[in-house]
Design a protein that fits this description.
Keywords: 4Fe-4S, Iron, Iron-sulfur, Lyase, Metal-binding, Pyruvate, S-adenosyl-L-methionine
Radius of gyration: 18 Å
Helix content: 25-40%
Cofactor: [4Fe-4S] cluster
CATH class: Alpha Beta
Distance between the termini: 48 Å
Structural class: alpha/beta
Protein name: Pyruvate formate lyase activating enzyme
Number of helices: 9
Strand content: 15-25%
CATH superfamily: Aldolase class I
Strand order of the largest sheet: 3-1-2-4-5-6-7-8-9-10
Shape: globular
GO molecular function: 4 iron, 4 sulfur cluster binding; lyase activity; metal ion binding; oxidoreductase activity
């Protein structure tokens, strides 16, 4: 089975437990204004990037790093783009990795058919979910889609017998989603998610600016600065107040009040 791949990154320490090989897939139905990989979105410009690869080719490449996975409890992470754009391709990769004893994780917005999600769960160890903005109209304004499907999929996941680990990630963008109301709403929504291991804050950055220039695209948030350490700690403290038993991280590091 063939799929569209943006790139493969080795030895990542920010995309799951241990040392990871991250496969970034092309295609995403969202258009987040802060997106650092606009070339992965569903538009004509993605034809300039990436290549087609077979599931077998990808797993063979990932398997080259098995010694690093063994010593660090690492493995494969499928990311995007949005992996739910290529569910059958993802399933073949995850299934073969499981057969070879390689730990598996996905990073997803959860914007896709729930049937696709169900098909991946049997071959999945770790699930990293973005919750960007809780207000549906604001979510539409900043990402191009309403969040109803995303939140509904998370609620459906709670009824599954799947026993993998769930990690919630919040991209922290000043003036967009770091306000007290949004953080409280996010925390309350996450409160009853079974299997929730942690909530991680990912600070906004502008690393994709050069790609926007190459694609002749306007970068909508060019005037927004990255949040500083104190702003991130304020968000973390609010989450901890509502979720005292939940592990809170700031870009991979444990938050300590």
């Amino acid at each position: 089975m063939m799929g569209k791949v943006l790139r493969i990154e080795k030895t990542s320490i920010y995309d799951g437990e241990g040392m990871r090989t991250v496969v970034f897939l092309l295609g995403c139905p969202l258009q987040c204004k802060w997106c650092s990989t606009p070339e992965s979105q569903n538009s004509a410009c993605q034809n300039l990037y990436g290549k087609e690869m077979s599931a077998e080719e990808i797993v063979d490449e990932v398997s080259k790093d098995e010694i690093f996975f063994f010593h660090s409890n690492g493995g494969l992470t499928l990311s995007g783009g949005e992996i739910l754009q290529q569910p059958d391709f993802c399933m073949e990769i995850l299934k073969e990795c499981r057969y070879r004893g390689i730990s598996t994780a996905i990073e997803t917005s959860f914007y896709g058919k729930y049937d696709y999600i169900q098909s991946l769960l049997p071959f999945l160890d770790e699930l990293y979910l973005d919750i960007k903005v809780m207000d549906r109209k604001k979510h539409k304004s900043y990402t191009g889609v309403y969040n109803d499907l995303i939140l509904d999929n998370i609620l459906k996941l709670q009824k599954e017998s799947w026993h993998g680990n769930i990690h919630i990630r919040i991209p922290c963008i000043p003036t967009v989603n770091m306000d007290e109301e949004n953080i409280k709403d996010t925390a309350l929504f996450c409160k009853d998610i079974p299997g929730l291991v942690d909530i991680e804050l990912l600070p906004y950055h502008r690393l994709g600016l050069e790609t926007y220039r190459k694609l002749n695209l306007e970068y909508a948030l060019k005037d927004i600065k990255a949040p500083d350490a104190e702003e991130l700690k304020t968000v973390a403290a609010l989450l901890r107040k509502i979720l005292p038993q939940t592990t809170i991280k700031i870009k991979g590091e444990l938050y300590h009040p």
